[in-house]
């Protein structure tokens, strides 16, 4: 079992991919809580050039609430990261964390069942990408 799943897509820009990813996430009940622009951060902090590369912290509040009610410390494993990075000319890799793998360390079957449902929703996002 891998800690992530991914899909490669063709698009004119990272913004185009981001918009599609956010639309698909919204359909699955997710919103974006955080954003890390790896390209800008590495340039600023290390003066190192990276291709366009975003980490979006996605959250489905219904599932977050369910697992936080069981174990408030589970917040250390939230939100679900969705990564969009340029891998070539008009080629992008979209990767999502596998919440089932991440939550397995908690060793709580109730949380793991919710993680499996969230995993399915994130897989729907990948499947929906053009």
Task: Please describe the structure with a list of short key phrases separated by commas or semicolons.
130 residues, alpha+beta, TATA-Binding Protein, 5-stranded antiparallel beta sheet, 45% helix
Strand line-up of the largest beta sheet: 1-5-4-3-2
Low-confidence stretches: none
Report the CATH architecture: 2-Layer Sandwich
Give the biggest sheet. Answer: 5 strands, antiparallel
Tell me the structural class.
alpha+beta
CATH superfamily: TT1751-like domain
Number of helical stretches of at least 4 residues:
5
Question: Would you report the number of β strands?
Answer: 5
Q: Compute the gyration radius: what is it?
A: 15 Å
Element pattern in H and E? EHEHEHEEHH
What fraction strand?
25-35%
CATH topology type? TATA-Binding Protein
Q: Write down the domain tally.
A: 1
CATH structural class: Alpha Beta
Helix content: 40-55%
Cα(first) to Cα(last) distance is: 25 Å
Which word captures the global form? Answer: globular
pLDDT average, as an integer?
A: 97
């Amino acid at each position: 079992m891998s800690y992530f799943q991914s899909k490669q897509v063709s698009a004119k820009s990272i913004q185009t991919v981001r918009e599609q990813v956010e639309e698909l996430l919204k359909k699955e009940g997710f919103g974006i809580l955080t954003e890390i622009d790896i390209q800008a951060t590495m340039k600023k902090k290390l003066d190192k050039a990276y291709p366009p590369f975003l980490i979006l912290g996605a959250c489905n509040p219904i599932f977050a609430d369910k697992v936080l009610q069981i174990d408030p410390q589970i917040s250390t494993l939230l939100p679900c990261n969705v990564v969009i990075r340029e891998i070539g000319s008009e080629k992008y890799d979209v990767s999502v964390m596998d919440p089932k793998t991440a939550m397995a360390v908690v060793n709580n079957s109730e949380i793991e069942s919710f993680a499996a449902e969230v995993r399915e929703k994130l897989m729907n996002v990948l499947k929906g990408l053009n």
